[in-house]
């Protein structure tokens, strides 16, 4: 019961909620640029070392996903190859390509917001991430899902 | 029987062999740069519109695979999002990340050289490429495999 609030202050966020909020900020940046609103941050020892949002329209590159931006930025910051101690926070369940990238980075943990039943990597019945990568889904799920849902609604 | 040779000239190459040879040239460029020798080209209507080789060391980016370079170069050349009419030639069977990228590009065809039993996308029992993507493997397989095999032998 860590988050019961006895004061008038707003309830404290868990670290996962805090960093997912940062990923949501990235998603809103994508939205402001008329991109599908998906955002990501990479965190190492409590510090954000990579940020990214969907840039498929701006770069005319269907592979320019939020996760790819955040992971390469993080690896660049680290100056090394692997992100074993790092967590990727992303507002939507990663696709197969991004989960495949996470394999190569030997990512420590993936925390995602909304589930993507159709295109998320979780639809596969074989593990494609690194054997040591921990997966958590559903953090701030509603906010993450609603951003994408409203985006596509406004397109119709 | 298109390739029977009645003259003293060397036998003609099939288009697949010709373009795989171009991918092999890219792989040798990688080798010269001390990268794992994997190369790729993207072909549209008989013309090479994207080239790439493995740049994981130079870019310190484990996701900088030959296919990713060639696909983004091709999409950039096309100025559009999709590569429906295009074929990716790559010397090694693509990994899950690259096959996942090919899904987003709605790639017409993938032709690869050597099989990658451990990390190739073919190990998965579900299709992760686009439903319309045609897959062919084993073109100039020995040359493609030998390049990578010799590279790792020389590392030991």
From TrEMBL, chains A, B:
EC number: 3.5.4.33
Keywords for the protein's UniProt record, in alphabetical order: Hydrolase, Metal-binding, tRNA processing, Zinc
InterPro entries registered for this protein in UniProt: CMP_dCMP_dom, Cytidine_deaminase-like, tRNA_aden_deaminase
Known function: Catalyzes the deamination of adenosine to inosine at the wobble position 34 of tRNA(Arg2).
Family matches, as HAMAP family: tRNA_aden_deaminase
Subunit-structure text: Homodimer.
Record protein name field: tRNA-specific adenosine deaminase
Gene name linked to the record: tadA
